Amino acid sequence: MALWPAPLPGGSDLEDERRTWVLLRRLLAELPTGSWTTFGDLATVIGSTPAAVGTYMASRPGLENAHRVLTSEGTVSPSFRWPDDRAGAPRDVLESEGVTFSNGGAADPTQRLAAKALAKLIGMDAPEDPEDDWDLLADRFEEQLSVHGDETFELAAQALQHWADRGGNIDFGRGATETSCFPWLDRADARGWIWPVVFYPRGATIEVVFQHLAKRPPFDDMAHREEFRRRLNRIDGVDIPADRLTKRPSFPITALSGDGMKYFTETLDWFMDEVGTARPPEEAAATEPDDSELAAEFHSAMLLLYARTKTEAGYNASAFLSMVTEHGGVGAAKRLLASPQISDGFAALHERDRLDLSVEAHVTDPCFTSLFSEEERDRAAHRLAEAGYKP
Q1: Residue 149 placed within a domain
Q2: What is residue 196's three-state secondary structure?
Q3: Whether 206 and 320 share a structural domain
Q4: How many domains does the chain have?
Q5: Would you say the pTM of this structure is higher than 0.85?
Q6: 8 lies in a domain?
Q7: What are the DSSP E strand ranges found in the chain?
Q8: pLDDT tens digits, residue range 227-258?
Q9: For the segment 116-148, what is each residue's pLDDT rounded down to a tens digit?
Q10: Phi/psi zone of residue 123: left (φ > 0), alpha (ψ -120 to 50 degrees), beta?
């Protein structure tokens, strides 16, 4: 087929299969390391049902990245089997790839690729998914937390509002039975998303994600996690043991009452300062341009770029995709520009006369000027000029 110049992994005779299953194979092949999705997310993109997707996958052993498809609750499907009958558990493989799991065995919801994100991987539009409605998810979180009383809800709301006032972002998990809430930061400079805690409404608890932080600077340094633990332990009723710095310990939201809120928000401020994205309260309404949305747009463009180089230029930039997944789109571009040598991807696209698909071409796009320094833009333009590329 013209759209995919090379056979896709996991089987042959794709031309005899319905387009639905060709799209499914395409999506599976594009799932990046360190992420997971659900049967329902895949079904939304390809226009099928979760049951049909599960049945198809169970009947086709050897589909690429099938272990990255989990249930709606973020757990491994009981029907999953390795094609070679290996003994290793899928969860162990996912953890080795960077996916973290809660004590209850559920994958981190922030690492889930929902329908819209999946569709972007292959450059197509996905139907609107009600699970991606931020307001709907916020209402679910409030409803689930409110059963614990007004005080508990108000404590969580106050802490999250403080985070938002300091320039942080807030999103929600997509679990089937529980809608968690996590405050996060987008470090567009180089290193991608990071978040300190997750609020779980069913148990009215706050989970400290040391396991997640252990893989993300500056908290990959244990001294930073220890300081994080020490600051949280100032809160009355919080006593996180020192041996939990690679785990996901929790404490009740009610611990934020009294002086607990003061210590907790001070800890959040410290966390932001350490990450380098904090915005002083008095500058919360500053009129300086906010590049977070533009950075998100560039990140989406880089994911689409990966799909296009594969379908239009016949080049599988898997290393680039891993870099984007780990460091974010802007971070990946900055790292490539910082290298004194052109990347293998740039060389491959030059050979194919498709430098319009290069990172350098996107960096020099006037739409993304504010994301990069003058030196970085000049370096990108110089590489393109040396290669004879004219937009």
Answers
A1: yes
A2: coil
A3: no
A4: 3
A5: no
A6: no
A7: 37-38, 69-70, 169-172, 181-187, 192-194, 197-200, 205-208, 250-252
A8: 999 999 999 999 999 999 999 999 999 999 99
A9: 888 888 877 655 554 456 777 888 889 899 999
A10: left
